[in-house]
Amino acid sequence: MTKTYQRPDLTIDQRLAVKTAAANLRAEFAQTFGVETIERFLHSSYDEFAGRATVTNYLPLLAERFARQRLRALAKVQGLSTDERPTVLFLCTHNAGRSQMALGLFTYLAGEQAIAWSGGTEPGNTINPAAVAAMAEIGIDISTEFPKPWTDEIVQAADVVITMGCGDACPIVPGHRYQEWVLDDPNGLDLAATRPIRDEIARRVLALLDEIGATALHTITTH
């Protein structure tokens, strides 16, 4: 029997949404993890976003998406996953601009050949609108993404960790492959100033795909 998630600030609709999210995750991971582990990851993910969310309607959905990512990472770390695709983690400070553009580009270009995640050492509240607009110009929609932290299991599950300006705050796991991409931070910049950053990220993502043995499935037209 599962426990009801107790938070005094949850509305009835949010409680129902969290209950549905838990059911979805249990259906996906029942053969891998126990109910307590699944719900612990969901509830801790919810708490992570609830502390800084400006719009609470989507909290259960965000928590479910992040918990799913974390559980897949944990399965890989514990040798419980049969997915052998290379995994890349993009990290920056706020997970609102550079790492989100890199995630969007990598996912678009790699397709199902590899897995990509992103995170921030100090996650912001929303995605940088200039980054969203710059990516939309090249046909990639990152508007539904959300700033999120890195967690131990996500870092440990990554085969390649790309850091972008988070310095000493970036996590270091011995034996993992790291790259530091020196890029301007688009925070506070307009669309015109963000385009060159996007284009440089695209160039580096293409090179990264080649390094991990993946083929770019699309052609990127930059400005």
Automatic annotation (TrEMBL):
Lineage top rank: taxon: Bacteria
PANTHER family from the UniProt entry: ARSENATE REDUCTASE
Keyword set, alphabetical order: Arsenical resistance
Domain Phosphotyrosine protein phosphatase I stretches: 86-211
InterPro entries reported in the protein's UniProt record: Phosphatase-like_N, Ptyr_pPase, Ptyr_pPase_sf
Coiled-coil region list: none
Name the UniProt record assigns to this protein: Arsenate reductase ArsC
Gene3D superfamilies: 3.40.50.2300, Corynebacterium glutamicum thioredoxin-dependent arsenate reductase, N-terminal domain
